[in-house]
Design a protein that fits this description.
Blueprint lengths: L3 E7 L7 E7 L14 H4 L3 E4 L2 E5 L12 E5 L2 E4 L5 H14 L1 H7 L12 E2 L5 E2 L22 H15 L8 H9 L43
Helix pairs in contact: 2-3
Amino acid sequence: MPMGSYLLIVRQQGFRDTRCPVRIGRNQQVHVNLRLFTDAEIGEGFVYVPAGPLAVGGDPAVPRQLERRMIDVSDFFMARFPVTNGEYLPFINDVAARNPGDARKRVPRWEDFGGSHWLEDDCSRWSLPKGKDQHGLIWEPDQPVVDVTWFDANAYAAWRSTVDGRRYRLPTEVEWEKAARGADGRYYPWGDRFDATWCNMSESRLEGGPRLGPVGEFAVDESP
């Protein structure tokens, strides 16, 4: 096959289709070894990222970048979308039922100005604001949850593990790169050219100003 970047789609009855990006260098022999998993093993809302080589670092636009190098990464499952407000809210209310003070430390909050974005009633039950909050932000159930700390995210993963009976954790930095960049070291999940309309950021919309959108709104922002 000519040198270049390829996407293998491996199908076997009883298992989920496996997408495996492969890069073939000049005069290079590439051996692909795959484990296949069922839908039940991977889990609803998760994708399977097969083991394989990854080009990490090397982006000249990133300050204090890592030196570009090839490493091998083990396979893993990763949520297709970020955790949403609608998924995070039951966690907050479960914590509040046992310790309202702990819930106030975990709820999305404005650290610089104090106070939380969400609303707490007299019974220590939390809900999303209707319309804009006091800082002008809109909180919809299908938006990614923001303004929480790394410690909050770990606590959510531990809680979700107990609720679902599966072990969840945060992805490592290398796993983030593997899931986003595939095997060819692309700078963005969709390739090497940037376009603000392809992802959810402050310059994505020409009307209405910067705002968070629902997960899955930007279909081009998808890795291999």
